[in-house]
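Team,

Forwarding the record for the chain on the shared tracking sheet. I've put the sequence and predicted structure together so nobody has to dig through attachments.
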Amino acid sequence: MPREYSGRSADGDASTPTATACGCGVDAPRTQGDCLDTSAGSSASRNGSWRVAVAILSMSGMAGCMTAKIEEVRDAPTRIASNEAVVLLAKPHLEGTGTEDKFLDCLERELVGEAFSADHASAKKSGKDRDPRSNIKDKPFQVYADDQFVDAFYPWLEPSTAPVNPQGFSTFLSRPGVSERVSSLGVRFIVWVDGVTQKTDGGGSIACAVGPGGAGCLGLGWWEKQSDYEATVWDLRDGVSAGTVSTDVKGTSVMIGAVAPIPIISPVQSTACDRLANQLRSFLVGADDEDTVNAPPKQTKAAQ
């Protein structure tokens, strides 16, 4: 069965936040850049060059700027053991865009050091036999291949039948044979991941031309992206929803046309992956979780 049965989407980055959202205090310019005069010996006008220089200086103050927010809500203690496994699944969507495959792969790499589900799917496609449960030393827990997990409980984890709330989760666990199958697989937690990275704003332009005097680009383009993801943790052993961890990262990227295009990219999605994985690992390991159950949501913010 293809991996997309778990609700994954093949699309990747799709959105961006504004400079104001970054908190850098600089409004993104929306003026058109001046084009190069490509005739022999000619150059851009002094006024045009001055405007571009001002725009470049302004954008350099906000390029690469990001804000990141992490929130955690714990409803039950976790404390996963090193011999127990988690499975990361994209939250099912009958319509719209689901969480990107590459984001789930990134989470697995951050959590256990490799994109185990993607590697397992690749081995399965090539006809190789591989254990669907990782066995990685010196890690706080293991990962179970998402496609194999969905297949093991077919059809109850398909987009049209998968549980979407605690009540549906309880119904899923009460189905004949489900609890016994969960125990045999050694999977302690399902982590439902929901969210996407998308472009939220952008502007400017870059013009490139070739002439007898050479080639070059002039102008300025910018775009903003937002990565907003939430991971909901369900405890298969105790039959409860353990809580949620979420991250919201916004950043502005710039492409400067100064003879050659110069990109200054804000790694919004990879930052969201890193922040969410770190918080999720801490959540699953459950250090001091007894003191945080039923506590107010914990929030942290960071700007880069």
